[in-house]
Amino acid sequence: MLTLGQAVAAAGETATLTALTLALQLDGGTAWVTALIVGSFLPAVVLARPVSSLFDRFPALSVLQYSLVVRIFGTAAVAFSITAGHMVFALCLFVITRAAIVGENPAVLAVAPRLASPAADTQIVYARLAASRNLGAIAGPIIAGALIATLPFWTVLVFDAAAALAMVAAVVFVRCSVSTDFTRSKPSVETSRRTSLVVDLLLRSRAAPYVFVLALAILFTSILPVAQSAFFIDERGLSATEFGLIVGAYACGRLVAAAIGSIVTWPHRASTALALATISMGVGLATSTAPTPLPVVLLCFVIAGYANTLQVLSIRTLIHDSTAPDRIPQTFTALGAINNTATLIGTIGGGLLIGAVTGGSALLIAGTATAIIGLLGLTSWLRK
User: Fold this and answer.
1) Smallest Cα–Cα separation from 214: which of 331, 378, 365, 51?
2) How many other CB atoms are there within 10 angstroms of residue 343's CB atom?
3) What is the DSSP string of 81-138?
4) Which pTM does this prediction carry?
5) 244 Ramachandran zone, left/alpha/beta (phi>0; psi -120 to 50)
6) 18 to 26, 138, 160: CA distances (angstroms)
7) Are 2 and 109 spatial neighbours (Cβ–Cβ below 8 Å)?
8) Running DSSP on this structure, what letter comes out for residue 327?
9) What is the predicted pLDDT for the residue at 193?
């Protein structure tokens, strides 16, 4: 039930992001779209410690449920602001709403393995969550496009609010199905002290080398959204349809990886899988810049998308297996802060890089650097 609810919630979230991107592009241009992207990542960076404190004081399911309720009302407020033509206010409300759901993903990641059967592999549980989220991420933009083409713009945000309500229903069902709330930490002086250093603790944990390598890779792979449009549309002259196929190929690769991972366990250790996925993603992105036919480019992006999901599943498994059960929500919150910080830096750096070199060169640099980081990580971990 939780997996299904996350699929619907992800569809609503990506539908809103797609609709707001279109509205802001038409109203204010690239600068507004950049502000939207930054605003979607910034809350997870700024609010890591406060959200971790919430998990110290309240059950993870409660944090999830009430953040979704705020999301419902926040999305409705954004819809009203856009209808009234107040785009700046709508953007501010969107950022506030994003801040309200910072704890959503850590809560789901903490709860899901406990709801599965004792014999279930952690990687398979996370793969099923990733598959449902990827399905929603693919469906969301399609739903947004269909709604915008046939109905008023605000209906997209109404759909998002309804999707969040469906996730609330799933959480309520889960809470009624378990006898005890196993996700609640025991507040103490020591717990409060550790929460204030949650990111520092993660960077000093057994999972620190893997978190560090992934963050370094994200610094370069986050150049992709900026570089791919500059390269494929402006420099290679591909049509909007062809560019859409490339973006879709990446999404399909992610979905395939999650679907396979939800059925079988990867034959490698999670650390090895993380390194191999990072190498594969880098090679896929770098190869896509070669003067090759569109089908080859599509294959490169399928590989890159597949590798991206494998990165996500590997790091989640490593974090889960190296963290005490009562600290899992806080640790995943810290991981989100680190990864989103790397994404923000990489996105801004990508924009500056494309101002100095071509989009193809930026994409080649991103892919090559990512592959090298993965290779260095693999070499280091195999020595242990």
Assistant:
1) 378
2) 22
3) HHHTT-HHHHHHHHHHHHHHTTTHHHHHHHHHHHHS-TTS-HHHHHHHHHHHHHHHHH
4) 0.74
5) alpha
6) 13, 11, 11
7) no
8) G
9) 46
Whose tokens are 């080398």? That residue is: 209
CA dihedral defined by 342, 347, 353, 358, rounded to 10 degrees?
130
What residues contact 301, with CB distance under 8 A and at least 6 apart?
246, 247, 249, 250, 253, 284, 288
In sequence order, the 6+-apart residues with CB closer than 8 A to the CB of 379 are: none
Encoding tokens for residue 275? Answer: 């390194």
**How many CA atoms within 13 Å lie on the side-chain side of 208?**
9
Determine the Cα–Cα distance for residues 263 and 270; give it in Å rounded to an integer. 16
Taking a C-beta distance cutoff of 8 angstroms, is the pair 358, 59 a contact?
no
Q: 9-25 as b/e, with b when 16 or more CB fall inside 10 Å?
A: bbbbbbbbbbbbbbbbe
In contact, 49 and 198? CB cutoff 8 Å? yes
Q: Please give the full DSSP string across 15-33, using - where no structure is assigned.
A: HHHHHHHHHHHHHH-HHHH
pLDDT tens, per residue, the chain with 384 residues? 677 877 888 888 888 887 787 777 666 655 676 677 777 778 887 887 788 778 778 887 888 888 888 888 988 888 888 777 777 788 888 888 888 778 888 888 877 777 766 666 777 888 888 888 888 878 887 888 888 878 887 888 889 889 888 888 888 887 776 655 554 444 444 444 444 456 666 777 778 889 999 999 999 998 887 788 778 877 888 776 777 778 778 888 988 988 888 777 665 688 888 999 999 999 999 999 998 898 999 999 999 999 999 999 899 888 888 887 777 888 888 888 888 888 888 878 877 787 788 888 889 999 999 999 999 988 887 766
Structure tokens at 366: 């991103």
Other Cβ atoms less than 10 A from the Cβ of 147: the count is: 19
Cα dist from 57 to 185, 256, 258, 327, whole Å = 7, 38, 33, 12
Q: Give dist(CA 48, CA 194) in Å, integer.
A: 13
* Region of residue 29 (left: phi > 0; alpha: psi -120 to 50; beta: else): left
Which two three-digit tokens encode residue 113? 């393995």
